[in-house]
């Protein structure tokens, strides 16, 4: 019986995140926050350590921007990762 065909160019999700280590990443959270920073590392649960972080939060008064040196992010609250993303554009 022949082995199932596998595409050598296929990239698994955690492999893509691993390729992003050391580069800027844009993260969209489940709540009204978006985070942009340099990915230092992650684990199997996609908990992340970021540096040079900018946090964007939508509030009734408008957008609040917070700068942080380092951040430990719980992967359970992540909705989407955008490798190389520069953050939300002004709306």
Question: What would your notes on this structure say?
Answer:
The chain is mainly β and 91 residues long. The chain contains 1 helix and 5 strands; from the N terminus they run αβββββ. The protein has a 5-stranded antiparallel β-sheet, with no helix packed on it. A hairpin with a 2-residue loop joins strand 3 (48-59) and strand 4. The mean pLDDT is 88.
What order do the helices and strands come in, and which of them pair?
Layout: H1 13-19, E1 24-29, E2 33-42, E3 48-59, E4 62-73, E5 78-83
Antiparallel strand pairs: 1-2, 1-5, 2-3, 3-4
Quick tags:
91 residues, mainly beta, five-stranded antiparallel β-sheet, 8% helix, 51% strand, globular
Give the oligomeric state of the chains in this entry, treating copies of one chain as homo and distinct chains as hetero. Answer: single chain
Please give the count of helices: 1
Biggest sheet overview: 5 strands, antiparallel
How large, in whole angstroms, is the Cα Rg? 16 Å
Class per helix and strand makeup: mainly beta
Helix content: under 10%
Short description:
By secondary structure, the protein is mostly beta strands. It has one helix at residues 13-19, and strands at residues 24-29, 33-42, 48-59, 62-73, 78-83.
